Amino acid sequence: MAQATTSKEIVILEEESVTLPQGFTAGGLHCGLKRKRLDLGYIVSEVPATAAGVYTTNLFQAAPLLVTQESIAKENKIQAVIVNSANANACTGEQGMKDAYEIQHNFAGELGVEDHLVAVTSTGVIGELLPMEKVNNGIKQILNKENEDVNNFLQAILTTDLAVKQIGVQMNIDGKTVSIGGAAKGSGMIHPNMATMLGFVTTDANIAHEDLSAALKEITNETFNMITVDGDTSTNDMVVVMANGLAGNNQLTKDHPDWELFKSGLKIVSEALAKKIARDGEGATKLIEVKVDGAFSKDAARAVGKSIISSNLVKTAIYGTDANWGRIITAIGYSGVPIEPYAIKVSLGSIPVFENGLPTPFNEEEAKQYLEQENVQILVELNQGDDCATAWGCDLTYDYVKINASYRT
Amino acid sequence: MAQATTSKEIVILEEESVTLPQGFTAGGLHCGLKRKRLDLGYIVSEVPATAAGVYTTNLFQAAPLLVTQESIAKENKIQAVIVNSANANACTGEQGMKDAYEIQHNFAGELGVEDHLVAVTSTGVIGELLPMEKVNNGIKQILNKENEDVNNFLQAILTTDLAVKQIGVQMNIDGKTVSIGGAAKGSGMIHPNMATMLGFVTTDANIAHEDLSAALKEITNETFNMITVDGDTSTNDMVVVMANGLAGNNQLTKDHPDWELFKSGLKIVSEALAKKIARDGEGATKLIEVKVDGAFSKDAARAVGKSIISSNLVKTAIYGTDANWGRIITAIGYSGVPIEPYAIKVSLGSIPVFENGLPTPFNEEEAKQYLEQENVQILVELNQGDDCATAWGCDLTYDYVKINASYRT
Fold it and tell me: Which residues are within 8 A (CB) of B149 and not within 5 positions of it... i.e. 6 or more apart?
């Protein structure tokens, strides 16, 4: 499984996931929340792992998020994650909190660990109480050997997703192979600020909690928080990272010579998962990448990128393979960033379409062909400074409407 | 035409428009910007009219907006508006400015008035130069008697609109009948902050410029700026009001006893046009009204209302007649307003669906029937204060995608 890595290189393993790092197992089963598909999953580490999380900014935070934040805060460690799909346990009041604690307690009991070492996450419909009998029955059986398969876990976390989302990387730190694995779900209610998605990252790195936490926040702002599907920020979503130290490297901190290498690995995992979520956006046919360069600040670059990637008009134009740069310019103009209209250059891939406040003549047929690709890039050069950012999203299609006009019922 | 009005009453005339007030004429013709439909229109007042305008907040303001703002600023008066559809004259650089001035100059010449008394407006595709020969030919003929018909004007300003948008009101002030008439266009690229729409309001009231201007700003914030179709704020749009004083009332100012009456009339006109634009949103089948009450400030109420009305997930759920209140709650939660989750009540029409942080049991079939109406109301009670706001929008449908995946080409 583990390819040898040479110093300073990061090996990317597309088919790997949260069980790539040493000491992690994962699995899942069908407990009855969905009609047929798997709906309850877990990740377990052999030993307690240093943990960090980022959580939705929505003021209606769901019960499992509250329980998980409180639990991680106790000693900055968790040993397991239990996740159900199909029901978000959000807007469920006191009973919802009671249910989340019960799930945590029961799974901790199966594992023989303290309750606060279990993180609880949920995703799905808002405002319905969990059918706890089904969930509890599932928890009783989930650690049985036949359910232990990372593919079961990857399936169990999905809702309207069409594809599983996984990635692994390996690097050499202090002569040891350090691995990072990731899995995610999410295809709707996706917008910057920890929107409807769950991200799970595991690593066998030995790493200090506060540095792990800082790296996760920084990288989340550049990856998970830079994707949008529909502009809606959900009540439930979070990214949690577990580092169990089994790789045996010297403890990573900001002062470790390979700190940047580890961060690069974590960023590759986060960015890959974020892009997979954007590409799997409800009804999407394309992944759209918006690169903004020459901004006077990182925040300005991000705001311009998010404004473009969130525009329904840009998203439908790209679905229609229409090089409608006027909609891109419009989205830049209302981003809230004080741009200079006459300094801006916009390109679709390598085709410049707007420069110095004016459209650039371009071959419409060539542009159309470019937009027919599955991966489309919009490049914006603001010419105001040196900061840059990238945002990812997807096109807006008939199927988006179809899926969301009939999701709940 | 003019029904008698009694004191303090406002008579609403659904079939009237910008020529209801005394001394205004309007017309339009086909000059060749569209294939067949009318594309050049005008409003003219017999005498110079006190004028005020509100303009897009998009940083890429189109050439005609710049010319119009500069012209109105000269003496706060205009006597005419010339408008073309199908081409926005936006992102057209120096040539675009030259073209806008040329249109202004040529139409002023036909009228025999000074250039700065003509407002110029455009709507349509961004980034293409106007075919000035066609426009200039149109201007030469547009004042011919056979083109003078307010219905021609109403048609000439449309782009993807399916319906003309007009309204008139009359009231008695100082023993005189004062009329206000309105017309608007807009169905896409519509979002608060003077998004892609043009609004034209005429009145024969005698009114002081600064008070007219203040009233327009205040009322625009409660009407035109509270609608959204797709969240995109365009480069071109504006509302302009012309008051020619021919009603003969004593000059209206804030101190006039009927100031509030006049403002009510102006608000009725603005709100009616705003709602007509929202209802005619690209692909829309329903008008959605979001009423937010009990906010701690007007801004908070507006932010919550706009967050809900802008949510693609709420819009698709209502298209699918799905009482998916979880999406409404989610949109409230990410509005940026520090709401109290456990204080909130949400109703669909008269059907409560969420109260005190929990879903309220309701009859799904009854809710579905309610959502099948053409006019749907979402009521949100924040229970934090006394301020309220209303926002309007439309559902998100297959046809929205269809229209916008192929608009330009």
Answer: B26, B27, B28
Read off the pLDDT of residues A248-293 as tens digits, 9 standing for 90 and up: 999 999 999 999 999 999 999 989 888 888 888 888 899 999 999 9
Nearest to A308 by CA among A286, A293, A330: A330
Q: How far is B60 from chain A (nearest CA, A)?
A: 5
Mutate to test the interface with B, among A57, A91, A193, A407 (most CBs of B within 10 A): A91
Q: Between chains, do B398 and A401 touch, taking CB under 8 Å as contact? A: yes
DSSP single-letter state for residue B361: P
- Assess B317–A contact: CB distance below 8 Å, yes or no: yes
At the second CATH level, the architecture of A287-404 is Roll (3.10)
Question: Which residue type is seen at A372?
Answer: E
Every domain of chain A and the residues it spans: 11-279, 287-404
Q: Give the amino acid at A292.
A: V
Predicted ipTM? 0.73
d(CA B351, CA B379): 9
Average pLDDT of chain B is 89
Q: Which CATH number fits domain B11-277: 3.60.70.12, 3.90.226.10, 1.10.1200.10, 3.30.70.890?
A: 3.60.70.12
> Is the dihedral angle over the CA atoms A185, A187, A190, A196 positive or is it negative?
negative
Angle at CA B253, nearest 5°, toward B216 and B56?
Answer: 15
CA of A359 to nearest chain B CA: how many angstroms apart?
6
Q: Give the integer Cα–Cα distance in Å for A156 and A27.
A: 8
Of 3.20.20.30, 3.20.20.70, 3.60.70.12, 3.40.50.720, the CATH number of A11-279 is 3.60.70.12
Exposure class string for A303-335: b at 16+ Cβ within 10 A, else e: bbbbbbbbbbbbbbbbbbbbbbbbbbbbbbbbb
**Residue A324 corresponds to which tokens in the numbers above?**
């409608």
pLDDT digits (tens, 9 = 90+) for B214-269: 999 898 888 888 777 665 666 677 888 899 999 999 999 999 999 999 999 999 99
List A5, A19, A160, A196, catalytic entry: A196
Q: Residues A139-193: pLDDT tens digits?
A: 999 999 999 999 999 999 988 788 888 999 999 999 999 999 998 887 665 543 3
Distance separating alpha carbons of residues B308 and B331, to the nearest angstrom: 5
* Adjacent-strand bridge partners of B78: B49
The DSSP bridge pattern shows strands A198-203 and A238-243 to be parallel
Residue B32 to residue B134: CA distance in whole angstroms: 6
Q: What is the dihedral of CA A16, A21, A24, A30, to 10 degrees?
A: -10
Q: Answer whether A320 sits within 8 Å of B404, measured CB to CB.
A: yes
Contact B203, B166 (CB under 8 A): no
